[in-house]
Structure formats: C-alpha cells, structure tokens
Amino acid sequence: MFTPRGFKFAGVHCKIKRKRKDLGIIFSEVPCVAAGVFTTNVVKAAPVIYDMEILKKNPNGIKAVVVNSGVANACTGEQGMINARRMAEKTAEELGVPVESVLVSSTGVIGVQLPMDKVENGIEEAARVLSNDPLPFAEAIMTTDTKVKMHSTKVMIDGKEITVLGIAKGSGMIHPNMATMLSFITTDAKISEEALKKLLKLSVDDSYNMIDVDGDTSTNDMVIVLANGLAGNTTIQPETDGFWKLYEAVHEVNQVLAEKIVEDGEGATKVMEVHVINAPDIKSARLIARSIVSSNLVKTAIYGEDANWGRVIAAAGYSGATFDPEKLDLFFESEAGRIKVAENGQGVSFDEEEAKKILSEKKIRIILDMKQGKETAKAWGCDLTEKYVEINGRYRT
Amino acid sequence: MFTPRGFKFAGVHCKIKRKRKDLGIIFSEVPCVAAGVFTTNVVKAAPVIYDMEILKKNPNGIKAVVVNSGVANACTGEQGMINARRMAEKTAEELGVPVESVLVSSTGVIGVQLPMDKVENGIEEAARVLSNDPLPFAEAIMTTDTKVKMHSTKVMIDGKEITVLGIAKGSGMIHPNMATMLSFITTDAKISEEALKKLLKLSVDDSYNMIDVDGDTSTNDMVIVLANGLAGNTTIQPETDGFWKLYEAVHEVNQVLAEKIVEDGEGATKVMEVHVINAPDIKSARLIARSIVSSNLVKTAIYGEDANWGRVIAAAGYSGATFDPEKLDLFFESEAGRIKVAENGQGVSFDEEEAKKILSEKKIRIILDMKQGKETAKAWGCDLTEKYVEINGRYRT
Questions:
Q1: Annotated Gene Ontology MF terms (chains A, B)?
Q2: How close does chain B come to A74, measured CA to CA in Å?
Q3: Pairs from A93-99 (Cβ < 8 Å, separation ≥ 24)
Q4: Could you confirm whether B180 is annotated as catalytic?
Q5: Contact, A44 vs A219, CB < 8 A?
Q6: Residue B253 burial by CB count (10 A; 0-12/13-18/19+): exposed, middle or buried?
Q7: Quick one: pLDDT at residue B175?
Q8: Of A42, A78, A73, which Cα lies nearest the Cα of B372?
C-alpha cells in the first residue's frame, strides 16, 4: 500500500465493541483541501450534519478525521450533536489543532448514544499511536465487514509523483443497521477546492453511487477526500490535464473500493457487474444499470444461475428511463465465456448448458447493448440469498 | 358474490397450461364505457399496447375482454402484436361484436409466442359457456396464485342499486415471471367517460399502486373498469355526489383485491400495512409508505419479528420525500396490541416481550405519525423470507 506524504493513521480498541478495534484517526501534518459527499437520506446521523457544516466553513483547513465504529450516532437528537462535536473537540485537543479542522464519522447501530468516556479514552490513545501504516485505521472502521478495504495508486502530474490512498468500509449483507458505507481518500496532490469538489462528485457518481447491496440507503454514508498538497505540483484547476490525471487515479481507487464493498457480504455468493452500453444518454444508462443490479428478481436469478433474460429486460423497463425496448441486445458473460440471450428485445435460442456454465462462475457480467446512442454506465451488485434473509431476519436491534 | 346486470363470464382450459383453466372472457350485453390503467414499464407486453390503442379509439363501445394465462405475450415483437390482435378478432367473431369492442390481456412467461391454435379453440369454447357466474373467469386468469381473488359490493345512487364486481390475479412471491397484476372491474353504473377515467385513476393510486411484493413492475400489469349503464341511473359526472358514492364502492373493491394480492404468496408469512399519518402532503405520504413497505430490511425485520424501528425510519428517510425527521413517532400494532417504539425521531424504551408478542401476529401495522401536516397514506406488503429466495432462485425460464 502506498501512503501519501504527510498523512498518519491510527486505529485502537476503546471498548465500544467487545473485541475488535473501534476508533481511528487520520491526521495530516499540514492543512488539507477537503471535499465530501454525504448520504441523501433525509434522516442524517449527527456526524453527517456536523461535517457538512465544517466543510462549508473550512474546506481548506482540514487536518484530521476521527471515526468510531459500533455506534452510528444516528436518531440520537440533540445529545447526538453534542457528542459529535465533543469527538471533534477531544481530537483537536489531543492533536493540537483547531476544532474546525476535524471531521467526525460514525458507523454502527442506530438510536444509541455514544459511550463518550470510552470514545474520549480511545481518541487519547489513537493520537499517541499515529504512524505511516493505514492498516489499524482500516480495521477500526469495520463493522460487519469480513475484509479490510484499501487501495492505493500513483500518478505523475506536472513532473511530481502523486499518491492516492483510499480506505473504506461497508457490508450491507450482514447486519444492515451497520451497513453504512464510509470511504476516506487521502492524497498529497495540490488542488483547488473547486477542482477537488468537482472531481469527487464525478467519481462518486460512477463508483459508490452505482453499487447496490440491498437498496437501503444508510443514515451515515460518507465519502471524504483530503488533499494536503505535499507533492508540490502546481495547484490543479478544474478540467485541466492534471485534473483528469488525478481524476483517473482517484477514480481507480474508488471503483476498486466500491467493488470490494460489493464482494464482501457473507450472504453473497456472486458479484454482478452490469454494463449498459450504447445508451441514448448518461442519465438513462445509469438509471438502467442501477435498476438491473437492484432488482430482487435479477439477484435471485443470478444466485440460481438462471439465464432469466426477461427479468433483466423488465428491470430496464421500470428504471424510469425512456428508451426503445425493441432495440435491446442482452448478453451474459463470465470467465467461462459469453452468450447472447436476447436480440432486439426478444429472446434468441441459446445453449442452456453453455449459459449454465457461464453463470456458475463467481463474477457475472450482464451486458445490455441498447443500440440507441453512445453513452455507457457500469453498476455493481451481489446476489440475493437465503443467507441474507436468515441473517437480517435474525438480527436484533 | 354480486354480479352487475348484463355481464357474463367464462373460463376454460385450452391447454396453454398443463392442467388448470387458462382462458377467460368477460362479455357485456350492451356497450360499456371503459377506462384502463396500464404498467408504467417501458417494456410493455403486446396486449397492453393493443388495449391502450383501443381505449383511445373506442372508450365508449367496449363489449368484451379476453384474457389468457400461461404466456405473457411480452418481448414477442411483431408476431406478438399480430397474435394480440388475432385474439381480439377471434373473440369478436365468436361473440358477434366489432373487433374494436374487444380488449385483450395476457399473463404468464415472458418471451414466448402464444400457441394461437389452442388460444383460438379456447375462445370458441369460452364464448359458448358464458354465464352469470364469475368464478370460472377468476380461475382462468390465475397463474401462481393460490387463491381466487374476487370482491363485490352494492351502492344506491340516484335511487338505483348499483353493483360493482372486481376480479384480480397477482402473486409476485412465487414465479415472478408470472407476477403480473391484472384486475377487471365490472359495474352496471351509468357514468361518463371522463368521470370513469378520473375515478379509476384516483382509486388505483390508493390501492394497486400502494402494494409491493418484490418491487419489480411487470410488463403486463393492467386494471380495466367496464361500466355498462344498465342500472339506469342518471349519467354520473366528475366530482358529483354520485361520483363519490361510486368511487367509494369501486375503491372498496380495489383495496380488498390489493390486499388479497399481497396476502397470496407462498413465500410470505406476514402481511404489513403501513399507515403514514399527519404527513405534510399526499405525495410525501405515499412515497414514504411505499418506501417502508418496499424495504428489504423492513421486510426481513417483520419476518424475524424484530421491532427494528431504525430500519423503518431510515426507509422513510430515503423515500425521496422531504420532511423533518425529528418529529416522527413510530408504532407497531397488531391484534395483540400496540407499542410506541420511537418518538420525535429517537428510540424510546419499550417492553421487548410485548413487542415480540405484537410482531408474532400474521398482520402487522406500522404506523408512522409524522406530526407535520394532515395527509395520510396506506401501503401494503409482505415479508421477505428464505422461501422467496429459494423459489425465485430455482425458477427456470
């Protein structure tokens, strides 16, 4: 894992959870330009409301993010807001930075107040053990995740080597009260506030916003990007060459993390990747890709290894996009091969044995060629299994 | 079951399906004013496209509906349109009525052409056995439904006794390629075309449009109302006294049928009824009720008899409606009692034993009091079970 210059990480166990690490800090030696994308849920957790305010006031002066897992600090009213602010204050005290330079994040059960004594002890300890190793932080933000989710890459811009490192969590298949998706991207690129905002929005629309585990949007979802400028490149402005180079790097990180989130669910046995190609416009392409990947009927068909093309076409049809259904070609693809199952909106005869072989793989691509434009979109999801129902039916608040 | 004056029904087995009845006709002795609401899916089955055209051209002259089950005639291209039209022609020939007075409907597997020889034999036979008994028709439109779905009521308008009879099918839990929702309402009321259209739209918005079985919208869904005027009342005009009286009767029929559709699914063990009350506006009330009833996490919680209020609040939050989450009160209710689980958007302590007892019933009401307006909406759905996944994962195209 590459670590961008000037960032330090920590993850500790402060006993919000019984055994595993539950509190983490990211710290930058110098102030960062920061941008965030937050849950669209009307019911927003206290840290989400807190961070939106901080990023409005101080987008060029962020020095730290403090995150706890185990308790979401959502549906917690006024006391929740006081606790979110206290997390920032305590972190600022321990790190010797201004309060308004600290962002806060939580993930875990809804409707429970944070145990602030434990949280404050955790912050003290984490501030003492900051290091170049991002792994303890990645572990500390996990809830029901079974795997750590990190990805990094490097890119040359303006003769300078720039590093991008992303750390995420999210696992909707298991205890979905804890299904929050969190992602923290750090980079040593130098970039303007406007450019960073634009870049993050563009990338999120084609990564985290295109994954579906169970269709339910958490109260705590957030993606934060911190750029501390230590690579020493000329400040990147919107839609310049440097902008697109950094975009590619950040987007690689976000797409890899989004796929890792989809892959990681005990209930899931398969990953679906839906490609919508030759769509009339980008909005329709995205609507259709998301609709297919979110359909319970498509999810169960993939689980059952059934080349049920009618369900895919129907899901495209109710996506909300307007299009000519009589132009659609549909393919299923995997390591084992590729098969055409529909042409011009109608089924074609295909070898059931071959289809079965293709669908028996772990990663299935569903390719919908709309033949009515040039836009494309990709979405990722997983299958729907008895295990999902079992786990979510049994889970107790 | 009350039957409106002048309507006759038939249902026969013409071997599209192996054993059960698969072709039905509704016939009115005199021309009907007719209105229809059709699937919003962009991918529309041939009979849907055909009927939309007929109702545009001839809304005051409908005399019959012919319906087959077993094959949906969806994703069947030009041949599908030819076959839909041929069903109407054959029915018109056998009944001695104009072709443009016949509506067509299909439900069953997608992507397969109708076996027209069997269908035509079925139409011949059905036309011969028309009677006052609606039961054979109700049986003939079933696919994976385990129960016949009919409801009738009477209302006095203008000194005349008016009868409304509805016959429906729909069962998304089992073989969802056949999950089409069909509903045919017959009445002997005399009503203007404009009034009938308005009345149907109003009622559908608060009945069929508020049920969720698996979130997937069929290519074949349709609701048709036929009014033949034989009750002899003065023609009902929009928003008169008579209009609202007939609305109440039709709406009773539609709500009962909608609930029967939700109840009938082998995979389902419980029915949920979501009441959103004191909402800021009707659109928000409906969005929120539908969002809750469609949430996989709420569905599995109900299945698991878990008073997981956080999932309900979160589903309200991502519904797309804008509201103040800090005003929400939430209750679970059933035959066994009623319990408050959240107040002003936050959890309240409640007796877990009592909650368990309430949620162990077959019919669960979730009541969300928004305390920010006067509008209400109801939605119906069922739980999500391992059985649903098992059935849909195994089902083969």
A1: glutamate N-acetyltransferase activity; L-glutamate N-acetyltransferase activity
A2: 9
A3: A94/A123, A94/A124, A94/A127, A95/A25, A95/A27, A95/A63, A95/A64, A95/A127, A97/A63, A97/A64, A98/A61, A98/A63
A4: yes
A5: yes
A6: buried
A7: 38
A8: A42
| Residue of chain B minimizing CA distance to A394 | B304
Residues of A in contact with B297 (CB under 8 A): 176, 214, 216, 392
pLDDT digits (tens, 9 = 90+) for B189-200: 999 999 999 999
Nearest to A90 by CA among A62, A59, A127: A127
From the candidates B49, B107, B327, B397, which should be mutated to test the interface with A, based on the most A CB atoms within 10 A?
Answer: B397
What pLDDT is stored for residue A396 in this prediction?
A: 46
Residue B279 β-bridge partners: B375
State how far Cα B294 lies from the chain centre. Answer: 16
Q: Which of B153, B180, B219, B385 is catalytic?
A: B180
Tell me if residue A260 falls in helix, strand or coil.
helix
How many Å lie between the alpha carbon of A237 and the closest alpha carbon of chain B? 34
Q: Which residues of B touch A364 (CB under 8 A)?
A: none
* Closest CA relative to residue A55, chosen from A256, A196, A182: A196
- Taking residues B29-53, what's their average pLDDT? 95
Q: For A122-172, what is the HEC assignment?
A: HHHHHHHCCECCCHHHHHHCCCCCCCCEEEEEEEEECCEEEEEEEEEECCC
Indicate if the pLDDT at residue B352 is higher than 50.
Answer: yes
Per-residue confidence band for B203, with pLDDT thresholds at 50, 70 and 90: very high
- Is the model's pLDDT at B346 over the cut of 90? yes
* pLDDT (mean) for B209-227: 83
**Chain B, window 104-163: residues with a beta carbon less than 8 angstroms from a chain A beta carbon:** 109-112
Is A378 labelled a binding residue?
no
ipTM value for the complex: 0.81
Contact with chain B for residue A276, Cβ under 8 A: no
* Cα distance between residue A338 and residue A86, in whole Å: 55
Q: What is the mean pLDDT of residues A160-178?
A: 75
pLDDT beyond 90 at B53: yes
A236: pLDDT strictly greater than 90 = yes
Q: Tell me which chain A residues have a C-beta less than 8 angstroms from the C-beta of B395.
A: 304, 306, 308
Q: Looking at the DSSP assignment, which residues form a beta bridge with residue B151?
A: B166
Contact B301 A393 (CB under 8 A): yes
- The predicted model gives A227-249 an average pLDDT of 97
Domains along chain A? 7-263 (3.60.70.12), 271-394 (3.10.20.340)
pLDDT at B182 exceeding the cut of 70 = yes
Considering CB atoms only, which of B75, B316, B346 is closest to A345? B75
Q: How far is CA B360 from CA B214, B270, B304, in A?
A: 22, 9, 9
Tokens 């007939």, residue? B246
Is pLDDT at A175 greater than 70 in this prediction?
no
Residues B27, B63 contacting (CB under 8 angstroms): yes
- Provide DSSP, A103-128: EEEEEEETT----HHHHHHHHHHHHH
Q: Is B81 on the interface with A (CB under 8 A)?
A: no
For the record, the structure tokens of A233 come out as 């490149």
Contact in structure between A134 and A28 (CB atoms under 8 Å): no
pLDDT digits (tens, 9 = 90+) for A202-224: 999 998 888 876 656 788 889 99
Is B15 marked within a binding site?
no
Contact B334, B364 (CB under 8 A): yes
Closest chain A residue to B176, measured at CA: A297
What mean pLDDT is predicted for residues B24-51? Answer: 96
Q: Give dist(CA A343, CA B100) in Å, integer.
A: 32
Q: Tell me what pLDDT residue B384 has.
A: 85
Residues of chain B neighbouring A303 (CB-CB closer than 8 A) = 389, 393
Whether residue A334 is predicted with pLDDT greater than 50 in this model: the reply is: yes
